[in-house]
Every structure is written in C-alpha cells, then in structure tokens.
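Side project, low priority. Logging it here so it doesn't get lost.
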Amino acid sequence: MLELLDGLSDAVIGVKATGEVTADDYRNVLVPALEERLERHKHVRLLYVLGSEFEGFTGGAAWEDSKVGMRHFTAFDRIAVVSDLDWVQRMVKALGFVVPGEVRVYDEGGLEQARTWISAPPSPGKLQFELDEEKRLLVLEPKDQLEALDFANVAQEIDPFIERVGSLNGLVVVAEEFPGWDDFAAFTAHFRFVREHHDRIRRIALVTSSRYLAALPRLASHFVEAEVRHFPWHQRAAAIAWAAAGEQ
C-alpha cells in the first residue's frame, strides 16, 4: 500500500510504500495527490520511501508508475528515493539521468537528509540569466556544465512573461567557451528548451570566443526561426543592442 507522509511543504508529495503496492494504490493515493498539487504549482517534488516493510510492486502498479512518469515527465523538479534495497538504489541511479529534474537516492538512515533536501530552496544553478522586461530581452550566461534543472529554472521565469507579451525581442548567450552538459538529462532538457522557445524569439546573439559556438549561427538557421548572429567576446554591449532591436 501507499500512504501519504505529513510534515512536508505543499509543493512536496511524500509517499511511503509498505507491503505490496498495487495499481489501485497509485490510482487512489499518488495520482490524486499529484494532480491536486499541480493545480497550485507548476512543478512539484516527490519523496518516495520504500522501507524494510516494502515487498514490491504488482505488474499493474509498475504500469501505473510508468504512466505517471510519462504523463508528468516534466512536472517533478526534485525526486528523493529512500530505500536500503539494492535493486531500488540501482534502478534509481540507472534511470535518474533521463529525468529532467534532480534525483537523489538515500538509504533509510538518511531519511531526514532526504526530507531536508526535498524541501530546500532550489539551487541557483549553473546557468545565470537576466530578463529585461522593458526590452523584452533575455541574457544567458553558463558558468559550468549545464544541468537539467538550469533550463527548468529559466523556463519557470520567462514562460509567464512570454505568455503575456507574445515573444521576446532577443536572446543573448554570453559564453567565452561552451561548458557542456553535466549528463544526458541536461542535454535533452537543453534540446527541449530550444524546441519549445525558438519560435518565440526574434533574434539570438552569441557572444563568445569559442570557434564551436561562433559557427552555430550557420547551423542554427536550419532549425530555428530566429535570426542568429555571432559577436566577438569583447562586443557584449553591441550584441545586447542588436538583440533588443529585434522588434524593428
């Protein structure tokens, strides 16, 4: 069975599994709690405790679990799994890289650590950004290898603004060298972010010393609707001025 845990913030769903978990447990406990929270929050967090009394999933429960994951793939920005079971820990570590949000696994002795982490404020991330609402301009500056949560943080900030005004005049990416991605989940999150926003941005300026990034405008013209231009590293101001003039 599944039971909801108390003492967590409204955006955190805590679930403890005991005995055998069935499909009805998902339909009657987890799914209603998740859908209720998503009416109030764009993203939620999940604390999943599978302790010593947990005996496993029925086939129907495994199917319901996969359906919840597919239907709400981008809804979770953090997932913490607490279990001493080796197969659970291995599964979470093996599959965690495909989840857009952050995923951590703890043994049962780390339950309080898991509760603290799942409720903690989001980390500032590796992708610094600034939205100038007056100019309708977004500036992105990667500081280290990008993580999936970096793109979720940016989207959470700019999507409501884009919905109000329709589009951005420009996007400026400032990166002396491209730092790469922390894992495959970050790569897919980056690809998804571009796919979901490229037709809402008029101009994209790349300010960089990287030969790889400098060559992107020619390649990007085949995939994005925005006008893309490269600027040398010392021409940040010129890049911002050009991108902000995207409405002209």
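Brief comment: The chain has a mean pLDDT of 85.
Revisit when time allows.
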